[in-house]
Amino acid sequence: DAGVIQSPRHEVTEMGQEVTLRCKPISGHDYLFWYRQTMMRGLELLIYFNNNVPIDDSGMPEDRFSAKMPNASFSTLKIQPSEPRDSAVYFCASSPFRGGAYNEQFFGPGTRLTVL
Amino acid sequence: AQTVTQSQPEMSVQEAETVTLSCTYDTSESDYYLFWYKQPPSRQMILVIRQEAYKQQNATENRFSVNFQKAAKSFSLKISDSQLGDAAMYFCAYRSPYNAGNNRKLIWGLGTSLAVNP
Questions:
Q1: CB contact at 8 A, B62 and B79
Q2: What is the mean pLDDT of residues B55-71?
Q3: CB contact, 8 Å: B113 with chain A?
Q4: Residues near A50 by Cβ (< 8 Å), separated by ≥ 6?
Q5: CA dist list (Å): B27 to A116, B2, B24, B32, B82
Q6: Interface test with chain A among B91, B106, B107, B113, by most A beta carbons within 10 Å
Q7: Chain A contact present for B106, CB below 8 A
C-alpha cells in the first residue's frame, strides 16, 4: 500500500489567499484525521471523519477553516483567507476500524504551509 | 478529560546506550490504548509501539520496550542499543476504549526531542 498521500508537500502563499490541502487515505480505512503541528501548540486535532462524515470538528480554529471528504479516497482542508498564524505543518492520518483492536493512526508526510 | 504529559522536552543518549523517555497520563477510564510515535527530521510520524491497558505484559518491539505502570499511570519508553537513526521527536498518545464516546481521538503529549550522540 502507498500509505497516506498528501499534497502538496510544501505550500508558500501570501496572506489572504485561499489554500487547499489534499489527502488520500489508505484504502479501506474508515477514519480520516486532520492535524496541525506547531512548535508552540504541538500536535492539534482539527477534525476527523468516519465513513466520510465529520464526527468532531471542535478543533477547527475558526470559520476560515473548512474540511470536506466527498468520498472514501479523498479529503481536503481549506483555509480561506489564510493568515501568517496559519503557518504550520498539516498532517492527514487514517485509521481502520476493527472492533476492540488498536486501530492505530497512519500518518501522511505532512504539508508544510507558510503564509507570508 | 484525559491528559498526557511528557516531562522531558529534550533528552540525549550516547550511541549504543539505553535511554528511557517518560510519559504520564491522567484518566478515569479502566481500559484504554497507549502509543509511542516517532517523528524524525523527515517529519513522518511513525508508530513505534503500542499497549492496551488491560494487558499486564509490557509491549516490546525489537530495541523498543515500554514500562507500563497502570496504577501510577505511567508509560515510559525504553530504547536499547541506541542508534543514530533513533534521533527524533517522540510522542506519547492516549486513546479511549472502543466503546467510549468519541473514542477515535488521540490525546497527545508535547513530545520529547531525543538526540543520539556518536
A1: no
A2: 93
A3: no
A4: A30, A31, A97, B104
A5: 41, 5, 10, 9, 31
A6: B106
A7: yes
SS3 track for A31-84? EEEEEEEECCCEEEEEEEEECCEEEECCCCCCCCEEEEEEECCEEEEEECCCCH
What per-residue confidence (pLDDT) applies to A2? Answer: 81
Number of continuous H segments (helices) and E segments (strands) in chain B:
0, 12
CB pair distance less than 8 Å for B108 and A105 = no
| Regions of chain A where pLDDT drops below 50 | none
Whole-number Å distance between alpha carbons of B115 and B101:
38
Task: Answer for the pair A110, A90: CB distance below 8 angstroms, yes or no.
Answer: yes
Reference A108, options A80, A83, A74, A57; nearest CA is: A74
Answer yes or no: do A55 and B102 touch at CB < 8 A: yes
Distance of CA B112 to the CA centre of its chain: 10
Res. B60: pLDDT tops 80:
yes
Phi/psi at A85 (nearest 5 deg)?
Answer: -70, -5
Measure the CA angle with vertex A47, ends A43 and A50; round to 5°: 125
Spatial separation of the C-alpha atoms in residues B99 and A32, rounded to whole Å: 19
Place of cell 490541502: A21
The pLDDT tens digits for B3-48 are: 999 999 999 999 999 999 999 999 998 889 999 999 999 898 999 9
Residue B92 has pLDDT above 90, yes or no: yes
C-alpha to C-alpha distance for B79 and B16, rounded to whole angstroms: 10
